[in-house]
Amino acid sequence: MKVLVVGSGAREHAIVTALRRDPQVTHVHAVPGNPGMWAQAKCHELPEGIEDGDAVAKLAVRIGADLVVIGPEAPLVAGVADAVRAAGVACFGPSAQAARLEGSKAFAKDIMAAADVPTALAHVCTGLEQVMDALDAFGPPYVVKDDGLAAGKGVVVTPNRGQALAHAAQCLERETGPGEAPPQVVIEEFLDGPEVSLFCVTDGVSVAPLTPAQDFKRLLDDDQGPNTGGMGAYSPLPWAPAGLTAQVVERIAEPTIRAMRERGTPFAGILYVGLALTSRGLRVVEFNARFGDPETQVVLDRLRTPLGGLLYAAATGTLGDLDELAWHPHTSVTVVLAANGYPDGPRRGDPITGLETVHEPAYVLHAGTRKPSGSELLSHGGRVLSVVASGDDLDQARERVYAAIAGIELRGSQYRHDIALAAAQGRVAAPAAGRD
Fold this sequence. Notes:
single chain, alpha+beta, Dna Ligase, domain 1, 3 domains, five-stranded parallel β-sheet, 13 helices, 24 strands, about 30% helix, purine biosynthesis
């Protein structure tokens, strides 16, 4: 099987790495890819960009791809999966209509209501007066979400009403393209309890859950600083209630997939369920329409089932024919090395050295890097690298990942020192109601 992976981040590097472990996958291509993938995949430049569905489809046909896997959210919302399928190539990723589950938080709330999925109470606002009323109705801490795509950084959770209002105003001032609806902002009630990410592979009918993970959104230790795209993750979750995955599939994923199918917009791909285990039970924080970053890095590190066959089955409507997914027993932790100035103004062009000091069971996945011809490896984005390590438990995996990241040099870089620490110390627990 020949697979084309669309994207250039650490998530896509993790997908490429997992595909190379699948004996059925003979060739892996990536567009545009990154320097870390060069040894694993043939990378292609695409002048039109990866949001141009026709260009991606033509590339897939030209290289004879049997399967296209779309990593980032923007190409999905732009309809790249539709174009690939129209060209006769199997594609893992939802249609543009189905990807609205991530592209519009207001649409996602409508689907959750139709499917009777438990989630936070919310008001969808189109003006600041509505925003102020909603903030007053819910009270602090305030949760303000941009309705559209924001690369994981469109959410503000703050006890400061002025800060919440300012973020809402910024969201409502966002420019929209021709034919796009006016910007909206979603104001939600705050959900207590630990958060969990669960990816569900689906062909639009059957659902195959992956292993739960937990990520860390804030930039700094102890969950301080601004929201980011994610600074680290770990899996499995030693504190998670027994039966959590089955409960999420039965109560959330399957009803959502059924509701999408009944609307005439079947969802095939990854349904990323972001959960809070609250004192009142499970609540959906958000849906995404693709693999999450950085959780993918640890989830795929533990996947024993061949990834290519799994994604191809979902893309071709045969997921129900597969055996239950198999997992390695080890624990995985990933830590993100970010550039100086991330997330507001990351510095680019700094040399990266020391990667040769990283050895199994730790390894490096590239995200924001570039390597000009004949030059050294340079930073080229906010989240520059993801370092992954496995161990018998969280303590061992953490020791290995932090030993590996300590050998990497990038001027002014930053990373969190407490990824998975609270869980390793037994300081994370689901509320009693969250165990039901």
